[in-house]
């Protein structure tokens, strides 16, 4: 059986955003609308995008920098399409680490949510050729939205 070639996604999106709350919000809005255009339901994906983008601008404290949001859709010979979301920021010294929040803690739940919803996730330091910093990634299964004609690009 042919194995999925992950270096050649069926659909790809990538854009740089300012490392700010506004940038994170904008990245989510644009990425979600792209997924909708591609014909997929966005609930799980939107949450993954939002958590990764928010973390990239919250925990990477290099001012005046950008972060890169990427989405790759993979089609498989058997099984549903899958999405890989990547948020690359400029900080390689700190990597994401899920916390153990108590009932009183108001934060520290984002990655627990990612861990629960993603099929797999992780982070790696970017190679010098790819740029400084690190990439945090998460993958999930995509659900095609029911429509009268299949408008997804092939
Ligand atoms: N992109 C990142 N760069 C550096 N550290 C990160 C990054 N993302 C997460 N972390 C680390 O992992 C911890 C847990 O992240 P998580 O998203 O679960 O919680 P939070 O962002 O602190 O709070 P919440 O997401 O609930 O608002 C963070 O407190 C931070 O120390
Ligand atoms: Mg968070």
UniProtKB/TrEMBL annotation:
Pfam family name, one: HATPase_c_2
Basic and acidic residues compositional bias, start-end: 85-96
Residues in Histidine kinase/HSP90-like ATPase domain copies: 41-137
One GO MF term: ATP binding
Originating organism: Streptomyces thermolineatus
UniProt entry tagged with the keyword ATP-binding: yes
Protein name: ATP-binding protein
UniProt KW keywords: ATP-binding, Kinase, Nucleotide-binding, Serine/threonine-protein kinase, Transferase
């Amino acid at each position: 059986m042919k194995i999925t070639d992950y270096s050649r996604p069926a659909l790809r999106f990538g854009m740089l955003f300012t490392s700010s709350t506004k940038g994170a919000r904008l990245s989510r809005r644009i990425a979600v609308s792209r997924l909708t255009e591609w014909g997929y339901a966005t609930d799980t994906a939107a949450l993954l995008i939002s958590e990764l983008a928010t973390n990239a601008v919250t925990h990477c404290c290099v001012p005046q920098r950008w972060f890169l949001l990427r989405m790759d859709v993979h089609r498989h010979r058997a099984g549903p399409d899958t999405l890989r979301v990547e948020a690359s920021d400029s900080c390689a010294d700190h990597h994401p680490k899920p916390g153990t929040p108590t009932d009183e803690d108001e934060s520290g739940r984002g990655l627990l949510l990612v861990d629960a919803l993603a099929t797999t996730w992780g982070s790696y330091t970017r190679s010098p050729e790819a740029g400084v910093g690190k990439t945090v990634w998460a993958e999930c299964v995509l659900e095609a939205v029911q429509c009268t004609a299949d408008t997804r690009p092939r």
